[in-house]
Design goal:
The structure is a homodimer of 288-residue chains.
Chain A: E1 8-11, E2 14-21, E3 25-39, E4 44-50, E5 54-59, E6 62-66, H1 70-84, E7 90-95, H2 100-105, E8 113-117, H3 121-130, H4 132-135, E9 143-146, H5 150-155, E10 161-167, H6 181-190, E11 191-200, H7 208-221, E12 224-231, E13 239-246, H8 268-273, H9 279-286
Helix pairs in contact in A: 6-7
Amino acid sequence: MKTYPEWLKEVDGSLWLTEDDRSLLKIDYKIKEVIFSKQSPLQHVMIVDSYDFGKMLILDGVVQTTAVDGHIYNEMISHVPLTLHPHPKKILIIGGGDCGAAREAAKHTSLEQIDMVEIDELVVKASKEYLQEVSGNLSDPRVNFIFTDGIKFVQEKENEYDVIIVDSSDPVGPAEALFEYDFYAHIKQALKKDGIAVFQSQSPIFHREMLKQTYSYTKELYPGSAVFQAVVPTYPGGMWTFTIGTKRYLIEPEKANVPPLETKYFNQDILKGCFLLQQDLKNLLSQE
Amino acid sequence: MKTYPEWLKEVDGSLWLTEDDRSLLKIDYKIKEVIFSKQSPLQHVMIVDSYDFGKMLILDGVVQTTAVDGHIYNEMISHVPLTLHPHPKKILIIGGGDCGAAREAAKHTSLEQIDMVEIDELVVKASKEYLQEVSGNLSDPRVNFIFTDGIKFVQEKENEYDVIIVDSSDPVGPAEALFEYDFYAHIKQALKKDGIAVFQSQSPIFHREMLKQTYSYTKELYPGSAVFQAVVPTYPGGMWTFTIGTKRYLIEPEKANVPPLETKYFNQDILKGCFLLQQDLKNLLSQE
């Protein structure tokens, strides 16, 4: 008999993955098969094939990205800052072990170097081998994989990157310190004097305090800051926010020049639309 | 011992509502209490109080609207057409038994008459009494409740309404015929010569064929047609589409004059942004 982690159950011969969100909301995905399942020193790493969302990356029982909707998050976290910056050459991605953000960034032919700092090598290995719908089996020579703690890595950098993308998981466990003020300050220091940083800043429905905090740090540290949104069906609440901080360039999406990119979600219209926020989110952010 | 319908279960002393989507995806909401539960001649009507989404209206086990996110759907399905029409006076709502769309429409002081045709009186009664977060206990004298089949009702109307809002449930059971060509043709006939119709047109991820069909009918029948989107966290996939058809007025959201309205989601920015679509949805619609 197979043994599964607690979030996987066999019911009447079918496999179900249960994502338990604060024991108040549970989402059960019917699973075709478990493709990969292993404990790393940091977390449990699992790739399954589901009926509705195709292949999924699961860390400690939480869905991180899927073959069906992973591109939305990854296109938005990379193409928005890379389009707002007029000539990005060297960029840093912190987190993003599924390789989706790096894959999207690599579509920008202007980029010369993409440093990708991920704390858990197993996530990258598993994603590159078993989740190519998201990772694209990323083997671009401009991508420089560095398996270390992003917080320490960035502390030692100064005036080095045009764009920094912080593609963290939820603010629990390994990613907790990625939501603290010091980290935001180090990111600013690691950016060139006209650099742009982007942070995933959680749900505008369920994590309003965390979003407010991220926005307030960014607003304090950067001359230009803004929140943009995308829909990520497999994240609780569906809506997801990103917060951007820019040291020199204005955030003028209507003036940005979108290069030719093969995308499924992002385009010139979405770049404009993603900064147009609903009334209660405007109200929340104006309190800062 | 209490008996519950199959979608409600007691586990370790806690109540859970399970929404089963095609037996591939299940969402379990932790429930504080069942407020109302009764079988109407058409469907099972239930109002529960949940931890994450507050009060919820459940029809035959499917979540229709909630206190936390119901306003998004209701604001978008009503304020978008009512803002694009320059001087709406008499409007018709088909469906919308939770009264949320009528409540939003009633915020437009220019309106003189709001006919609301709902097939199931029990849904309106239960929503007005137990789900006032959505219904607002709607008692505006301009709202004219008509409890009958919307399909038959609209067949006998001609050149009568400035705006028609089709706020149907999913295309199964009572609402199935609201997705057929004849119904769309009758809606057009019931509109004045400069009228605007809006239809909820399902998920752009899970119901792509239904959305394509709605858009193709609207495109065929109306000189102007377009798809707009909103995020509805409690609908599968989070993203939701609406399709609009207009007999005379151009769909120019950037030129529309949004009247002062007390809203939580809709505003001038959202009116612009909701018509800006992601690339794969543009591709899908351009096949029509």
